[in-house]
């Protein structure tokens, strides 16, 4: 095993050395087009009242849904059931002079990050041949090629963007799609067939939010998830499994994912919106549509402890695994929890790398530009909401704080928040992938 490249403050020449550590990544794929929330080509006027919808049927619902998440600065992704409307959204995005195209989806975004770090990766996704041909040589693609590219549209906005009476408290995006390929996990069989030959050290599962509120026939969704569950069951325990969470509103789907994926995962990655959603599911059997977009460190750490304690009770039979790693990425900080008895290593370095990667991705640069950076965290933070909790101070020379509790280690790294936002979409995927690189 070759020594991994160390994190640098600036990356003038990203390492291209192929590392023998391999990563098998499964998840949805799409090409994402971005447009700003202030774009008026769709004739979306600020609605009188924001409203949440599980899926979008018309322009009024889209406007109300956008306002709902926009006013909270919360990320979300929703299925557009009206095909004609979605075609109009795509045309509007393409007509915007500010639109950009990116290879997106959880798995492709994570794969590109891992390949950039010099790792060999197997990507299970359905892509058009021209996209496959443009991927780095370190990426092996399994899955039949598509004739037409799946498009997802990101409506991105910056902090303090004004839309009618609404003001965005932070930069974020609403993603809409009309994807009919990825909800069925169409490349799953090819992924399963190639795992034994590839022999990955880590399998990453992502993109399951494509199933959320999709109009499946009765039993179709559960059948596909059971095949994924069977694939994870058959993996040797020496192969780590990481599940990258996303925005879910269908409580039945999230319960099915808990049973078929989360109970078979060593590691989970998610943002500040998705963490309380999972906590709510574990504690009450329900989901939360919205949460604080800038939560306190103490709140996040307590929620992490809740998830960890619950999933540590998993009985390791039939391929099930106890959770040993949890990575929460927020705008203001990165927090990683790892079990002391696990083989995860370099937790402090992983938290630091995740924070640096977040800045680079959002700014769209390989450089850390201090003139485009701000720190949202105070000079100290509470380790818990408990009144008896201790207060932890940041040290300038060593800003990542790590400490031990019970059978685990927690590391918190302050975020270098980019003040000149180029993109928020794909941020969590790049951050999670970067954090994983140093921990195997």
From TrEMBL:
<keyword id="KW-0324">Glycolysis</keyword>
<dbReference type="GO" id="GO:0006096">
    <property type="term" value="P:glycolytic process"/>
</dbReference>
<keyword id="KW-0808">Transferase</keyword>
<dbReference type="GO" id="GO:0046872">
    <property type="term" value="F:metal ion binding"/>
</dbReference>
<keyword id="KW-0963">Cytoplasm</keyword>
<keyword id="KW-0479">Metal-binding</keyword>
<dbReference type="Pfam" id="PF04587">
    <property type="entry name" value="ADP_PFK_GK"/>
</dbReference>
<protein>
    <recommendedName>
        <fullName>Carbohydrate kinase PfkB domain-containing protein</fullName>
    </recommendedName>
</protein>
<keyword id="KW-0460">Magnesium</keyword>
<feature type="region of interest" description="Disordered">
    <location>
        <begin position="1"/>
        <end position="29"/>
    </location>
</feature>
<dbReference type="InterPro" id="IPR029056">
    <property type="entry name" value="Ribokinase-like"/>
</dbReference>
<dbReference type="InterPro" id="IPR007666">
    <property type="entry name" value="ADP_PFK/GK"/>
</dbReference>
<keyword id="KW-0418">Kinase</keyword>
<dbReference type="GO" id="GO:0005783">
    <property type="term" value="C:endoplasmic reticulum"/>
</dbReference>
<dbReference type="GO" id="GO:0006006">
    <property type="term" value="P:glucose metabolic process"/>
</dbReference>
<dbReference type="GO" id="GO:0043843">
    <property type="term" value="F:ADP-specific glucokinase activity"/>
</dbReference>
